[in-house]
Amino acid sequence: MTFATWLALGIVALGVLPIVAHRLRRRHANEIHFGATSLIARSPIDTRQRIKIDDRLLLAVRLLIVALVAMLGASPFVSCSRLTVMRTSGASVAIVLIIDDSMSMRARLNGETRFEKAKAGAREILGALREGDAVSVVAAGAPSRLLASTTGSRADAKIAIDALTPSDRPTDIDGAFRLARSALSQLAHADKRVFVLSDITDGHDGAQMPDVEGAQVLVPLPELVRSVDDCAILSAHRRGTQASVEVACNRASLGEKLAVALLDSKGTTIASVTPPAFGDHTLVTVDLPRGTLEPVKVRIESIDAIAEDNELPLVAAGAPRPIALVVDPTTATLETGGATVVEQALRALHPGDPIKPLATMPDDERELEGVSGLVIDDPPGFTPEQRRALKAMLDRGSPLLVMLGPRAGTSPIGATFEPVLGQQPRWMTTSSKGVDEQSAEGLLGEGATGLVALGAKNRAVIGYEDAKTMTTLLRWQDKEAWLLKRAVGRGEAWLLTLPASVDASDLALTTGFVGVLAAWSEEARKAAGATSIAMGQSWTFSNVRTVDVKNGTADVVREAGTYRVTPRTIGAHTVVVDGQTEIRLATVAASELDMRPRALPLAKEGATAGARRASIDASPYIALLLLLGLVVESAALMLRGRSDAADQPA
User: Potential cystine with 570: which of 168, 259, 368, 492 (Cβ 3.0-4.6 Å)?
Assistant: First the structure.
């Protein structure tokens, strides 16, 4: 509260005046007639008696009046507030409530989590809606979800808000805004609002908040956008008799006295180490005591705002499987020399992961048994032996990326593009400058910007029948397919309609190319039986009958014969695939440690505030009580006057 508030409330101190007045007040002593006193001369002294306090009811009323005067003086400065919706000329509104249920929302502010504050704010806004208003509810934890489609029923929206629980997902602001745009695009309301109840921290530090055409974007709870301290375990693997623990903090000074401890199944510490110079990110090695058996947990002792990311199970680290490359160095190498552009991009994405360049496409399927995935650049087609090797690899679940180039139109006799394509692709000229940016939002987000102008004069075009059976991930600006995929066996075959050659286009020089390789390589890492993934990613299982999660919290979705398991919380998950049990680990997404918020939406000229803290003015009610107190005091004085008159001697 401000100084003026305390000054107004200080009037309560004047309540001591009625008490002093009552203590000092004198009244006539009661006279008792005694016959013998008539023989004594009358004394002129007027005797009075001092009492401690009398008329207690009157004193209480006066104290109450003083308190009410103080409250009345302070009422302009003190108010009870809640979120409400301001309206333009009283018209109905259409709103989208984006509620962030990511890991960073578990941070506590004044004893309450950000997530709890966000839900409370959503309920307040919901309570301000009226008949004719429309509301949608979107959860911003990755992947973003539409919890309640556009509806006029506040009860349905309230059920969706109440059912939302905190999770360990990363923040997906961009995905939430795509859902908000879709929810508002079909509505006829002139007044549209998007309320973002989030800390708006998603690793895109300083980036401008997304916009929704025709709608106001509002952050009604700016107190959520407050940076907090946090440390987290990003990975914990057991290698022989040692535990390798990757720990990160969003502020380097937090790691100065941070301790990493290993705990047995009973929660007893069996080993501990304090890194001498921690910094904001480090890899800590802890020796396991002899005879240590699993399960073992890793815990960091840190004073931070989020406790849920300070513990993680220790899992065995398997040897990473290589990604094989069939890329011609004469066409896919920069003038500066070195490795091909595909190999350089993959090494930058996954430092330390093995890469296996191959001179030619293998004819023997055994040569592909140990790979996690295969990239083929500008193939002229596949021979029968190569097709069998590819089919065997895809059946095992390892993905394939084929980048079509000029050789696609000159396949030798007997060579086809099966099992990827049933028809021969064509290499032809193109008038499109690059990729349709809107089609890339779901896969690449902001990374699609670099693919808008590729400088390509030619491109590959696949047959109509093949296009119908494949999923188009990205499109050219003329709506032709740019990147496609299809399920083959337990794996996926991805098809790119441009080669990696720097002479054919600028594709290999763009950040979008790295984004495409990142999306595909994540599928390769998961298919390789990766024991752990970061939150926000999913495990996929193709051509299986049943998938169930016995231990852990995850969403299981089946799409076109493929199961996708997306964990909601970090930790170990027991996944049963066709009766076979697998232990998978979900870890904290590194982006959730970045507590730097995105830039708030810019205020538009002439725009009114879509939500505000509505103050409840209590002064009329206090004035009414004050008037009542004065009436009671007057009545008490009248009664006391009559009582004093009755006590006087006749």
Answer: 168
* φ, ψ at 502 (rounded to 5°): -75, -10
Q: Which amino acid does the sequence have at 108?
A: R
**In terms of CATH architecture, what is 80-227+595-616?**
3-Layer(aba) Sandwich (3.40)
**495 vs 402: CA distance, rounded Å:** 5
Fold of 231-316: Immunoglobulin-like (2.60.40)
Residue among 585, 106, 592 at smallest CA distance from 298: 585
Q: Kindly give the residue spans of alpha helices, DSSP state H, lying in 186-235.
A: none
Q: Is 5 left (phi over 0), alpha (psi -120 to 50) or beta?
A: alpha
Longest CA pairwise span in the chain (Å)? 153
443 — phi, psi (to 5°)? Answer: -95, -45
Instruction: Name the residue ranges covered by the structural domains of the chain.
Output: 3-79+619-647, 80-227+595-616, 231-316, 323-527, 532-591
532-591 is classed CATH 2.60.40: yes
Quickly name the fold that domain 323-527 has: Rossmann fold (3.40.50)
Four-residue CA torsion sign, 495, 501, 506, 510: positive
Contact 521, 323 (CB under 8 A): yes
246-to-252, 253, 258, 307, 308 alpha-carbon distances in Å: 15, 17, 13, 17, 16
What's the whole-model pTM score? 0.62
Strand partners, 139: 99, 145
CB burial string 543-559: b at 16+ within 10 A, e below: beeebebeebebebeee
Residue by residue, DSSP assigns 135-198 as EEEEE-BSSPEEEEEEES-HHHHHHHHHH-----BPB-HHHHHHHHHHHHHT---SEEEEEEES
**Which residues, in sequence order, are CB contacts of 241 under 8 Å at separation 6+?**
287, 288, 290
Question: Do residues 98 and 147 make contact, with C-beta atoms less than 8 angstroms apart?
Answer: no
pLDDT tens string 33-85: 666 666 666 665 554 444 444 566 666 777 777 776 766 666 554 455 678 78
Tokens read off for 581: 């049990």
Token digits for 570? 């970090």
Q: What are the tokens at 45?
A: 């002294």
Residue 547 backbone class (left: φ over 0; alpha: ψ -120 to 50; beta: rest):
beta
pLDDT in tens, 204-232: 776 788 888 888 899 999 889 888 889 99
Residues 6+ apart with CB under 8 A from 288: 238, 241, 242, 243, 262, 270, 271, 296
Contact 65, 629 (CB under 8 A): yes
Cβ atoms of 310 and 234 within 8 Å: the answer is no
Q: At what angle do helices 56-74 and 619-647 cross, to 10 degrees?
A: 160
DSSP character at residue 447: G
66 phi/psi in degrees, rounded to 5: -60, -45
Average pLDDT over residues 83-92: 75
> How far apart, in whole angstroms, are the C-alpha atoms of residue 503 and residue 193?
47
The DSSP 8-state label assigned to residue 606 in this structure reads: T
